Amino acid sequence: MGVNSFALKVIAVMGMSLNHIGYIFQEALPFEIYALLITCGGLTFPIMAFLVAEGYKHTSDYLRYSLRLLIFAVISQIPYSVFIGAGGNILFTLLLGLIVIRLYSFVKRKSLILLFFPLVIGLNVFLDWSPYGALMVFWFHWFRNTSFRVVAPFLLPATYELMKVFEYFESMQVVIIPNLLFTYVGCSMAIVLLYFYNGKQGKKLKYFFYIFYPAHITIIGLTRDLFF
């Protein structure tokens, strides 16, 4: 019983697809539909970050794992820049998180990893899920042997977005709502899924998910440009 990694990946790509449809077609969608699609997108990165931390634990070849992420990050950057916006795509964020985990494994005094956090945050500013995405990947690894493993990493987005909560109650601007739903509903839904993770791999479609990322952005973006 429970949820295996394959099922988590399927849910993640579904959430990512809906999120990108909402983002790319924002101007053509009713606000309520847009907000719903963006909310679903909140599921994606926490699941991906968790699976990268899991992947590091189970991989027999860190170099190959990181190189694969790098290659597809570079490939994905073209459609990402054309249809999503400036900055590095989410695969670069996951790669940065993986690198931090690797560095942590070589540090004898584990508390010294805290010295890397300002640098990681500084680098993550230029990437998707700025500025805490890579730290979220690392926190899933850092808390791996504790009962807080599933919950603790969500303190990063929840804390970071608190200012938007205050901003909403001060201004009551509905344009802020999708971002809040993304974090406090979408991301929180991922907690439940990760809680029921059973540690099993499930079906093996390793490269499908890497290829899907740039492919779906390209298809959604071209569809918008051709028909809207």
Could you please describe the fold and organization of this structure?
The chain has 228 residues and is an all-alpha fold. Helices cover 70% and strands 0% of the residues. It has helices spanning 5-24, 31-41, 44-58, 62-83, 90-106, 117-124, 133-142, 155-160, 162-171, 177-195, 206-227. The model has no long low-confidence stretch (mean pLDDT 92).
Going by helix content, strand content and strand pairing, the class is mainly alpha
| Series of H and E elements | HHHHHHHHHHH
The total domain count is 1
Distance separating the two termini: 44 Å
The number of helical elements comes to 11
- Taking all Cα atoms into account, the compactness measure Rg is 17 Å
- Strand content is under 5%
- Label the overall shape: globular
SS elements, strand count: 0
Stretches where pLDDT falls below 50 for ≥5 residues? none
Please state the average pLDDT score: 92
Helix residue percentage: over 70%
Please outline the major beta sheet. Answer: none
